[in-house]
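Quick check before the chapter quiz. The format below is the same one you will see on the exam, so make sure you can read both the input and the output lines.
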Amino acid sequence: MNLEDDALDEVVRDMERVLKPGGLSAHCIDCRFPPGSHPDISNRRMLKRLLEHYGFSEEFIYANHDHENVYHMSEYAYDVFWKPYCNNRPHELDGLPFNIFVVVQKAWFAE
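Here is the expected output.
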C-alpha cells in the first residue's frame, strides 16, 4: 500500500472499529528478501504499521525468515505464477516469496 502514515493509521483504526469483541483479525502479506542482503520490510508499510500497532517486533521476522521451517515458494511456482508479473525478473534478484501472517484477537472487554 502506498498511503501516507495517517491513512494507514486510519485503516487500522477502522479495522478495529468493525471487529467484534473477541474477533480475530488476520493479515497475510507477501514478502521476499533479496539473497545476500540484510532483510528489510521498509517497503511493506502496511505490515510495519500492523506490527507497530499490535506491539510485534520486526526483528522476529528478520531473525526467522530463513529458518528451515519457513516455507518459501518453489522456484518452479515462482517462474510459472509470479515471474510474468514481476517484469520477468529471476527470483535470484529478489528472493523467493514467503508469507508473513499477523493474527490478533480483539479484547472481549474495552481496556
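If your answer matched, good. The mean pLDDT is 89.
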